[in-house]
Amino acid sequence: MFDMANPRHTDDHTASLPISQNPRSFRSSNSPINVISEIDLLHSVDHQILLGDPGSGKTTTLKRLARALLHTASVSEHDSFQYPVVLRLRDLRNSSGDLTVEIAQLLGLPIDSKVNSTSDFSSANTASMTVRGKALDRTLYTFLNATQALLLLDGIDEIPNHLRNKIEGQLENLAFNAYTYKVICTCRSGAYARGIRGYSLAEILPLNINQRDEIIEAWSEDPVAFKARVEGKSYVELLNRPLFLVQVLTLYENTGRLPERSSDICKRLVEFSLDKWDSERGFLRESIYSKFSSEEKLEFLCRLAFELHYNIQASVFETRDLEKIYLDIHSEFELPKGQAEKVAREIESHTGLFVKSSFDEFEFSHLSIQEYLAASYIARGPAMLDIRDYMQIDTAPVAVAASLSSNASGWISTLVMKSYGYEGLPIGYDLKPQYLLRRLIIERPRFKQDAFFGFATIILLEQEEVNSELQEAFLNLPNVLISVRMFLEQSAYVFVSDGIPELRKDEITFEWLGGAPKNTPLIPKKSVNISRSILLYILENADFKIRLIDRDEIETWISGKDIQYILRYTSVEIPFTLWSGRSN
Fold first, then answer.
1. In terms of C-beta density within 10 A (0-12 exposed, 13-18 middle, 19 or more buried), how is residue 202 classed?
2. Contact yes or no for 19/37 (Cβ under 8 A)
3. Secondary structure class of 548 (helix, strand, coil)
4. pLDDT tens across 407-454, in order?
5. Strand ranges of the sheet holding 199-204, from the earlier edge strand across to the other edge
6. What is the chain's Cα-based Rg?
7. Model confidence pLDDT, tens digit, residues 157-181
8. Residue 210, Cβ neighbours under 10 Å: how many?
9. CATH pick for 19-204 out of 3.40.50.300, 3.90.76.10, 1.10.10.10, 3.40.50.720
């Protein structure tokens, strides 16, 4: 396992996974799911092909079946198998290239052949091979039946393309000649495009909460702390895939912490899916887009996710939607025209990030993956004006894009000001600030201390859709409250009354005295109203002074603590001279 210091024991660190008897690609979206357990695969009279996404637990399930056969008693008349024979089908690439020969060699059958070397059968015809004068294939079937073997063949999707037809034919022959032995194979869901006769299909389902917790408790030294760290994070849904769950667990166990930003976890898991999973296992998949680097694959997926999220505006889409988008973007990535579904199936098979969810529907494996990829595309784009349009559809990728930005403070400030604050630009866009703030609170971007960002924050927090709970939660993010206080230090409360400054009102208006940030040619809104409750929260334990200007433009300064006192005790009469500083 990637980044794991030592291997883990199968019995102690894995769990039985839920399995569906009607795989998603072969059912309609509203079809019921018939769930079975891994042990039901042994008890079934059928030979099985177990489908699953990358990292869903296919190989681990075969290991668990082999150990169950060796260490537990049979509980069904159909479970009469005596021993497992385990073979990784990708090993055929570097050996005989013949499934029958490979199994016979594993069993130690003495193969006679007309080729010179008995260890190299790649150029020989299986029909010419014998075991003590009898045909190899017939002898193998007889031996397997006589000894009641369980064949566990891992990775149909990893068979080299030039051997695929031959090996699939041999798999069919193994099934047709079985009477007392059984064959269970695995294959990535996206790579199973045509049927193999003699086999029933099953597919590993995502982990439910109980199964996820079982794995967490087996892997983590402090499962309660780990579950608390991931609770409420946008990536928590990704942990329903065993590989992703173990990756995050390993990161936590190795470092004692997890990144604060959800986007950092998504980035890690996407990169792992695109490149490291197969390379860590020493396997290179054949592909029509194999010339793509990992960066180019990521760019293609980001563009695809963005188009589907904002143009199709759906998390589940039909083949015709995919074909339309593919037609628009294939030339940018030098992909063959008219092969949208084939490319989609390769993405599914190679990464598991994009899947065929039913007979004629596709989707990203997790919504958070689609949001992360769409956000990556937005973060690299130059058109901030368009982002206001994206906000009308969905704020989540925009919030994630801010987190991915190299300057999250500037990114949010520009977005807010262009939507609410700049003179001369159309106002009226519904920025859906409450949804934006909720997602920003989850994503925890790396904001820097910046007065102009503090100005934008106040504008955002004072929108009528934002309640006090969201206001306080956002102000508690790192550097947000400090930025707001920096804004107040560079602002002034302007009052026009002849007597007491109007600090008893529900809203107090502060005027921005600074200019626009560098490289921002537009003039920002000059003032912002701050509610009494927010101002009290901002000034709590604050150690700075605020500028006051009366109608004669005479300035004075008053401490934040004094203003807080006046706001709390509205019946207190404060002489005007205290404010203006003209005389005692």
1. buried
2. yes
3. strand
4. 999 888 888 877 776 543 455 556 678 888 999 998 899 999 998 898
5. 35-36, 19-20, 199-204, 47-52, 182-188, 149-154, 83-88
6. 32
7. 888 878 889 999 999 999 999 999 9
8. 8
9. 3.40.50.300
